[in-house]
């Protein structure tokens, strides 16, 4: 569970304590978007890749991952648009949510946990976000677990 001190709880894999490499095979997208409104979609994704991927992954591979995530999440039309703030007009709510998901996908996790990925989205936008996730999972690339399925 997430509280004001961070995340807490126990993670078991097949009933056993999680292995040491576990943090490298999972991703977690929190309910509230944590992205910089003064950067573009592409810049946010590249920032996530640069800060969180091992140094052994070269810059051209990071850029390739960012470009692949932009295609996978259908963000091509807004990839060079600012996210936006209260004072700067930016991308839509669905594009913002897909960017948040993309910030985890650039790490290429095997399993992606999402905390209520459609909260705050209208029905059409929520369907679009879920369709993107469904299409990726159908390609055999990721497994997705949504919080509301974990109760």
Give the arrangement of secondary structure elements.
Elements (H helix, E strand, L loop, with lengths): L1 E2 L2 E2 L4 E2 L2 E2 L8 E4 L11 H12 L6 H14 L20 H13 L5 E4 L8 H16 L4 E4 L5
Parallel strand pairs: 5-6, 6-7
Antiparallel strand pairs: 1-2, 3-4
Helix pairs in contact: 1-2, 1-3, 3-4
Brief rundown of the structure:
With 151 residues, the protein is of the alpha/beta class. Helix content is 36%, strand content 13%.
How would you characterize the overall build of this protein?
The protein has helices spanning 41-52, 59-72, 93-105, 123-138; strands at 2-3, 6-7, 12-13, 16-17, 26-29, 111-114, 143-146. It is of the alpha/beta class. The protein has one domain (2-149): P-loop containing nucleotide triphosphate hydrolases (Rossmann fold). Helix 1 (41-52) crosses helix 2 (59-72), helix 1 packs parallel to helix 3 (93-105) and helix 3 packs parallel to helix 4 (123-138).
Key features?
single chain, 151 residues, alpha/beta, Rossmann fold, three-stranded parallel β-sheet, two-stranded antiparallel sheet
| CATH architecture grouping | 3-Layer(aba) Sandwich
What is the number of helical segments per DSSP (H or I, 4+ residues)?
Answer: 4
Distance between the termini: 12 Å
Low-pLDDT parts are none
Class by alpha and beta content = alpha/beta
Into how many domains do the coordinates divide?
1
Mean pLDDT: 84
Q: Whole-number radius of gyration?
A: 16 Å
CATH topology: Rossmann fold
CATH class reads Alpha Beta
Supply the CATH superfamily name: P-loop containing nucleotide triphosphate hydrolases
Biggest beta sheet attributes: 3 strands, parallel
**Helix-residue proportion:** 25-40%
Percent of residues in beta strands: 5-15%
Order of helices and strands: EEEEEHHHEHE
Shape, per Cα inertia axes: globular
Number of strands: 7
* Cross-sheet strand order for the largest sheet: 5-6-7
Protein name: ABC transporter domain-containing protein
InterPro entries: ABC_transporter-like_ATP-bd, ABCG_transporters, P-loop_NTPase
Membrane topology: Multi-pass membrane protein
Domain ABC transporter: 9-119
